[in-house]
Amino acid sequence: MPTDPEVLGKLDELLATIRASADPRRATAEWKQAFNQLKKTDAEANHVANVVAMRGVEQLAELIETLRAPDESGLPDPDAPDDATCKAALRAFRKRLKLTRLDDESQINSRNPLTGGQRSEIGMIIPPNEYPQKAWEELARQGKLRHSGKGFYELTDG
């Protein structure tokens, strides 16, 4: 997915400001703004954090260029899952989430058998490992799931 041109324009402005400062490594406010703008892109979070933490001006310029033209070929990703795989993966995710919630609500290990009936507050799970990670990433890209961090995903409202 191409990066928003408005975000790229803001990153270009910040890069120019950082380069123009007397000591680019001390332009703290600009680096913070650049970090916030980079979080809006598809750039890998660890790479972004490393570039900003090291205050690498040239690495920031390379990252912006990579975001500007991530794939010149225009060919689809050969590792991308097909629609049938994504549909089956989403169905499996919903089923796993439902079973996890039911298990949480069952209160089988409760001390008092007359209590219970509370709704589960589980909203995110680690997706079933029967499907490749690319399927979960594709579903998140489509907006059907949201990556919540550390391998957890949750259903979106859409």
With helices defined by DSSP (H or I, 4 residues minimum), what is the helix count?
Answer: 6
Strand order, sheet with most strands: 1-3-2
Biggest sheet, in brief?
A: 3 strands, antiparallel
Q: Unreliable runs, pLDDT <50, ≥5 residues?
A: none
Please report which band the strand proportion falls in: under 5%, 5-15%, 15-25%, 25-35%, 35-45% or over 45%: 5-15%
Distance between the termini: 19 Å
N-to-C SSE series?
HHHHHEHEE
**What is the molecular shape?**
elongated
Integer-rounded radius of gyration: 21 Å
Mean pLDDT: 83
Structural class: mainly alpha
Query: In the residues, how many domains can be counted?
Result: 2
**Fraction of residues in helices?**
40-55%
* Count of beta strands: 3
